[in-house]
Amino acid sequence: MFRPWAFWRRTQYLAGATAVVMIICVSFYYAYWYETPSCFDLSQNGDERGIDCGGGCMRICSFDTLAPVSLWTQSFKISDGQYNAVSYVENRNLNIGTAELDYTIKLFDGEGLIIERKGTTVFPADSVYPVFEGKILTGSRVPTRTVIEFDGSKTVWQLSETGREQFVLEKRDLVNADSRPRLTAQFRNTSLDEARDIEIVATIFDATGKPLTTAGTFVSLFGGRTSKDVVFTWPEPIAKTLRSCEIPTDVLLAIDLSGSMNDDGGIPPEPISSVLTAAESFVARLQDSDQIGVVTYATGASLVEKLTHDSVRVGKVISQLVIEPKEERGSTNTGDALKRMREELSSARHSADARKVAILLTDGLATAPAKEPEQYALNEARLLKSLGVQLFTIGLGEKANKDFLKNIASEENQYYQAPTAGELKSIYNSITNSICEDGVAVIEIIPKAKTSFPPLK
Q1: pLDDT (tens digit, 9 = 90+) per residue, 178-209?
Q2: Domain of residue 185, residue span
Q3: For residue 309, which of 22, 251, 288, 362 sits 20 to 30 Å off, Cα-Cα?
Q4: Strand order in the sheet with 182-189
């Protein structure tokens, strides 16, 4: 017989027992297994916009960020078979960066990939930052293309407390540009807090913004509100690379005083008179920091003026040069002229801060010494250029050996043809502009510190 009151009593007993069991289970769960939602539990919970990112988490979700953009990437020869590479990368995220950005830099030539280098760098917010890889060995292969690729799979984006404004460049000094270049920079940490693991990259540009070379260094600790000197070095000269007038120039002029330089006749005789006037004008335009020396040559060659800053005196010496009577039937020893220039530009008078330039003018052929005069000159030109000298040649008149003078010049476009002496002044002006461009070199030195980012909690 069905008793409703008994049924409901059993139901109540069962419900009560079930509730007690559930309370015990829940208590055990919260006591031993439950974890409060956090930004490190690999789950999207709480107010997060993604897994452990967004909302109250310090991590910024990757879908809320803009990917890094490489503005340019290039490798620079440091010595034979060794290159430094740098990529200027823009962070377009406002106040968002990452302490660890994974990248791969790849160097290619015409045959394909030469080498790749993987790394991780700091990537602060709101600006352009260099990514640097140094001492990349390429063997006998010469890279013609350099690229950078980013791996964002492990990138943790977060708010950046400080950016480039944390470090202020107080002064810099580039010395020994033509021996073992050394760039010293003094930075000040404007923050009260110390900075750690600071990567600093220096890139030198010409006045047009073309990058010329790069170097990097690393500082492990930089105290708050303190200044520190950092040093960048290169194993080989960079003076030839930097065309800025900020780098001084040591110049040797070689002037042909063989008998043919009187052939146009006149009083004063031509073309030698116009040649000397153009050379004087060239010397007068040199900077105070430049040095000038003069070699004359005919059957032999002589150093008539050693390297000096006294351009006024050198101008007077040039104005008084004459062709000796014995040279009216003499020869033209171009090789000896190149040898005298090499000896002077490698002497103790050459400034380690200056680039080396040689300018040789002739109106004829190399005819001395008697045995293989052109080959002798080519050998001397090769030795001269091996010192890092920029060799310019000027062929005056129709008798000058154009092909020979092109071959001994450093580059084909560093040979100039002057049909008459009237073109010499403009040619010397072109050489001046080629050696030393308007505007100073732009040297960007950019620090990046891991401590720009607060620790994740």
Answers
A1: 999 999 999 999 988 898 889 999 999 987 88
A2: 166-242+440-452
A3: 362
A4: 167-175, 182-189, 227-233
